[in-house]
Amino acid sequence: MSHKSNSLKQLALQKFKKNFWGVFSFFFIVLIGFISIFAYVFAPDDSQYANQMHLAIHSKKPGYNVTMLTMPSKIKVKQNSFDKLFFGRKNTDTEIPISEYAIKDDVLVYKEYASDGLEGAEKTVELNIFPNNSPKDFIQEKTFLFGTDKYGRDLLSRVLVGARISFFIGFVAVLISLLIGIFMGSVSGYFGGKVDAVIMWIINVTWSIPTLLLVIAITLALGKGFWQVFIAVGLTMWVEVARVVRGQIISTKEMQYVTAARALGYNDFRIITKHILPNIMAPVIVISAANFAAAILIESGLSFLGIGAQPPMASWGAMIKDHYNYIILGKPYLAIIPGLCIMSLVMAFMLIGNALRDALDVKS
After folding, report:
1. Inter-axis angle of helices 333-359 and 155-191, to 10 degrees?
2. Average pLDDT by consecutive 10-residue portion of the chain (364 residues)?
3. Enclosing domain of residue 114
4. Which of 39, 55, 74, 209 is paired with 49 by a 20 to 30 Å CA distance?
5. Is 121 found in the same domain as 16?
């Protein structure tokens, strides 16, 4: 039996490997996951939430170049390397876009950047605020590969950091939906009768409420925030899992190996967890991939409505909300770039779901 199970797994794996789009989507999702975990390593702006604002250079096109003067702060912030790696650097320095500068005697004279042909203000600062009285290490050319948003923040950094929310909400929401859905579906399908009637009533009531409306209600009840959105989305996605598990168990519980397990005196918990669930996980895996995509879209919708991840957190949905007006103002990339990110990640999960469905189909 073990050899049979292993051979079926190997056949499914071989079929999956032959599906180009499935394999491509798998590696794409792994890449996005890696980037989302180590976002601050790849982001040009590694401050917390990539929230370094430069209002003088707002809404600039991709590839924009500017000279940036960094004014060191006297405030010393203690931050360990782990916190800096995964949660960003607590930046107390001030970055100022400048158009020109000169060192005269013991002062640095610089002219602030001004767009639209305006003349920037000329200011001076003493050299002793810089280590070793050398300001040249604090003046450098900075390139914004994706341009800047309406607050002058680096759009590439915001996109990279925003991937964390969109990616991890899929894992948390799917995990919650699996825990609740498998439990409810197993109990309903295995025991039947009044238990099944009560659980099906709960499922039908939950199913009848529009998903986005239910998420909004749960979010408002739990409060706005990072984890509240994760929980709210997860609590609305268990219904589909429960219905699939219930249907599979109803058709499986009369199989001979289940009858044999009962004859051997195994309790219901062992029969469900050790004998039934391992044999019905194929459709659950496929629906979980679809739920990943749905969770990303729901979170993006919530952020667009302003009840998802709250500022200054970077979120793809919130970035679209902040910049959708710019589509008609000649700067559509501010909304299109995060929109393409959402589309590509959702498409990857849908493609891998289709590939898993084909690979796990025993009839083909």
Report:
1. 30
2. 60 89 95 93 92 91 92 84 89 89 86 83 87 83 93 94 88 90 93 92 88 81 79 86 92 88 89 88 88 88 83 89 89 93 93 88 60
3. 64-149
4. 74
5. no
